[in-house]
Records
---
Amino acid sequence: MTYDELLIEADNENLIVREKPLQSANGRIYGNRIAIRKGISNAEKTCVLAEEIGHYKTTVGNILDQSNTNNRKQEISARKWAVDKLLHIEDLFRAANACCGTLHEVAEFLDVTEEFLLEALKVFKRRYGHSYTSGEKTLVFNDCGFYVIT
């Protein structure tokens, strides 16, 4: 899903999205207003907006204090929502088929940030375990990312 598609989805949810010169974060949500840091890359905007929409859909109240366990759980929930919105496990096979050999290349191919890709890999590993098989190919998750076995 692209940044423009996410903007349309946000609009359909009656969310107001504006790019602003934020000081301490790439994105913030307050009520139905989302601020995205002005000047960041398109991939960063996409990942940040997906997470902020995830907060809108899954979070209750102010969760800035991440020393609070409940707030951390809500943060994880919003990030998981964003991962599910932007990536599917099959996208990793597509990246491997496109000869992407590094996490940077995979992230660039999928139009997400490396940080977001690493978060997605954690989500997929928790969901599927250490490997995922599709057809005759198996994706294996490791500490450095993933690799594909045929």
---
Amino acid sequence: MNSRGYGGYNGKHTYNGRSAAGRGKGWVVPALAFLIVAVIVLAGFLLFGGGERALGDPEKCEACGETSCVCLLHYPYEEEWQAALALAKEEGLYYQALVELTALMALPETPPSALLAELDELREVYYRECVKSARQLISEGDFSAAHGLATGLEEFFPGDPQVENLLFSSSDLVRYTGVIEHIFFHPLIVYPERAWAKVTPSNNQNSLDTKEQELVTVYEFKKILENLYARGYILIDVNMIYTATFDEDGGVAGIKRNDLWLPRGKKPLIITVDDLSYNRSTATVNGQNLKLILDTDGELASYSLDMDGKEVISRDSEIVTILDSFVLAHPDFSFNNSKGCLAP
């Protein structure tokens, strides 16, 4: 949009040819007029930026009739903004669009809220699609292309755990040929005092079956994760190890061992969780959660009854949610955002 300028008096005066002796009072009027014009021009420059109307001037907008208007028609870079948005919407060039929009944001004029909303939406789409594409590229072994996408994301989302995980999973990789460790867990004990209530000094742990003796508490599981992280282990997806081929009837025709590429100095780990279907009777006796639910924020959480029978909803008392939080805080504990496996 072309800015609306404010013209002023041009200040041109012509001398009428009278002699110096005959000028007399003839100089007074032109001089005063010139001084007034100069003051008006200077004030106009200071108020309107050299002839362009500044956003938010207390004057009625010719387009919408409002005073102190910041509507789209007054934004001087609307065409450039819309052109940048078109790069994303029509051509899928999200990164280039965000680069141009970021440059426009650095200019003094603040874009209207409608454009800012479009920018926020564009950032969300770019983040979602780029993360998805980068993870797919890593799973296909195209680490260079994935790293390029992750680097672009880092420019606009510095410090984001997902982006940091992508960078970690796509750079300085080496072929791993060592042992792949596996740890197996059951649902965690949330209330140890309830789990050990049937253990007495006389029977010690004899009253617990083999499965119960394998259970660990929330505290113990967190300590195990910290120890594994400190020792250089990272979570991997079991599907990274083998690729199965199938016959026409859907049966397994063969299994191929894949090359395993991991960040230098890291060791692979698979975590498996069994019986996450929750048996209410045994879960209650063992002091475990009763089920997994979605909390009021739509996030995965565990549901249990405390020692007083009161409902407890938590994101910090089961393997799945604890592991999610740990990987979020330690992006270099997981290869390509791998977590655990749920045993059938």
---
Amino acid sequence: METAIWIIIAAAAAIIGYVAAAVISKKNASSRANSILEDANREAEVIKEKRILQAKEEEMKILGEAERNAGQRMQKAQAAEARNKQGITDGLEPLNARQSVLSARNSLMT
């Protein structure tokens, strides 16, 4: 009879041990899962920040390039305007001289 009691105690201890091990294992698994999720969230945040930084750098590069292009176009437009003004002025000088000659002739004729 005493042997039966020891067998029952051993079986109860085994069941209690199994249940305790299962509960502890579940807690550890849950804790490990939370740890993995936290690590993944931190890594995702780092990746997100890197991507944002890369996008800002790309934006600065594009804006700089656009400003350089706009400056070059402005210089070309100013140079063309200066050439046009010079061309008009150069073209007016002979006309002004001719008009002066014609005015002088008209005044001599009258």
---
Amino acid sequence: MRKLFIILTLIFSSNSKSDSITKHCYIVPSDEENLYGVLEKQTYAGLPNYESVENGDIPETVTVIRLNDPMCFMFPERNYETIHIKSVQVVDVNKIINTVENQKIKVSGRLFEAETGHHHTEVLIEVTNASKTL
């Protein structure tokens, strides 16, 4: 039933980008999803203004998973808005990921929407499991 709802929503959605990019739309927030890609470190502007490291904001380096392909994410709480993104910030509070940067990886966890200035991608994943892939 959930898949049928997602498919119908994508067909009738006027604010999604090209549906040919992906066949599946992840629901945000979610309980448990799997993402596939490459781990990377990215630096963003932090305190005090979250605008520019060059203008004095403290750099914040975070781990992201650069997805193998742009993926569709749907937000029921935003009137089922859909976006297609290539990177998802990784929240690994339990230190599950022991993979080095630039490794292909499968990350499992709960997807959620950015809520604070420390969240630097529109979607984040709270890791519950991770494994290297070929």
